[in-house]
């Protein structure tokens, strides 16, 4: 069955709601255009209209994404950076977004997450506990140097 093609105006209306609900990246909106069955020729015009009306702002999206993933999910910089690249966010916007994470908060969060993980592995053998804590923090996207030093400190307590 052929999908009904939406007019530019219908697509614009749907995408305004889509973008108003939460911040979106350009690539997410682009994908939504395909999903809605909008003609390829209309994509650039629809995207331009959304940018002009301030429904779509890559810098704002990147800041919200980085801040949200850090505060809500305790993600490290590497994981945030990787995810933003996956969403095809520009390097410029990624740099600005990373500045949204205060250095002091970053270290405090890393320490809190590490201590919580370390405590949850109390019954484990010493080296297993160290390895599992380190792996967990790496998977969360924290830098190897910071993780290594912190796990050593936890292990020596």
TrEMBL record:
Main localization of the protein described in the UniProt heading: cytoplasm
Keyword Phosphoprotein found: no
Keywords, ordered alphabetically: Cytoplasm
Domain (RecX third three-helical): residue spans on this chain: 104-147
Domain RecX second three-helical: 57-98
Family matches, as InterPro entries: RecX_HTH_2nd (IPR053924), RecX_HTH_3rd (IPR053925), Regulatory_RecX (IPR003783), WH-like_DNA-bd_sf (IPR036388)
Pfam families: RecX_HTH2, RecX_HTH3
Cell compartments where the protein resides: Cytoplasm
Family: Belongs to the RecX family.
Name assigned to this protein: Regulatory protein RecX
Source organism of the structure: Flaviaesturariibacter amylovorans
